Amino acid sequence: MVILEKSPTQLTLQHRPYSVWIITSCLAIGVPFSVIMLGLALTWILYFWWLPLFLFVAILLGSGSLIVFGRTATYFFDKSLNKFTVKRRGLFHTDVSEYRLTDIEDVYVVQPNWNVRKTQTGDFQIIIAFRYEKPVPLKGTNSNGEEKMEMANMIRAFLGMRRQTVGCVPR
User: Fold this and answer.
1) Residue 137 φ then ψ, to 5°
2) pLDDT in tens, 112-131
3) CA–CA separation, 155 vs 125, rounded Å?
4) In angstroms, rounded to a whole number, what is the distance separating the alpha carbons of residues 61 and 135?
């Protein structure tokens, strides 16, 4: 997650799933290109009946995964409008959710799975809890708990809350 804007009245954070974009482009473009180049070098491989089906499935899987998993999430905190806006933009549509900043009750870091092995890999998530709404998890990179805690404390400081210094809060 990167900070796009940080001012006294506005804070904008954004998550772009670069790893998903790289994997899906390799699947949709790289695999068919490699098979076609292999077919030019070894012409006998073009006689396999499954080759066009394989190319079609690779392109379909790559495009489908990009549509489903390649969404960009942008989080706008605006004190002047008293709004917290979550914009999730995909390839074909955009979901926008708006909340009032005064309804935010807490911002904390949680470890969704209390497995010992996951603790070392950085499976942490920032949660924004509201008074009257369901909590909103912020998508982000696979950073460790300390980096997520710093991001949560930056959001808390922007909202005028005190810093969270104790480890992670369970769900």
Assistant:
1) -80, 140
2) 666 555 445 557 888 999 99
3) 14
4) 32
